[in-house]
Amino acid sequence: MGGSFHSVKYFETIVERRTIPGVLSFSATGDLLYMNREAADCSRQIMDTRSDGGSAGRVPLEVKKLCRDLQNVLSGSVSPREFENIEYRRVIGDMRSPILLRGFLLPNFVHLEDTRLLVLIEKIGRRNQSMTTHSRDRFNLTNREQDIITCLIQGRTNKEIAQNLKISEHTVKEHIRHLLRKTHTSSRTAILARLFNDS
What we know:
By secondary structure, this protein is of the alpha+beta class.
């Protein structure tokens, strides 16, 4: 990628910042150039959990949508020098096995058409502990609210949360209402999306 040494260093910094299991690289036109084994495994998992029985091809629809968002940036008024500050995030999957998609542009400043789209796929269940610790500070959560979040991550129903924490379902609902207010969200899934995206 001539003219994009800085972009390669930027990518290395991203990878060093967190263990990233899945890497996909696309051309500026959206053609798949590279997919490592972990990305292929995550892609199969995403497609296997779709209610319509999966999707055609090797790349999940959610990843293709993320690529289209990145392509829109390329065709917009953002200067190439600003590309490196752009990062799109999506949390997909269910609460038992959430997956974080992160999209970046790796610009080629000499030939803009040679810019690459990079998508990182991470199974975020393994990050629950660090995520909830970060969330406590970010959203001023109580210990009990953190317990509720841990249960939400595990995909538990209100009844299961109540049994697990030995509290009433009414109390669980109250805690979830507080979490909705603190995270400025409107659903249980959105709470997790906000927490994962901010971690």
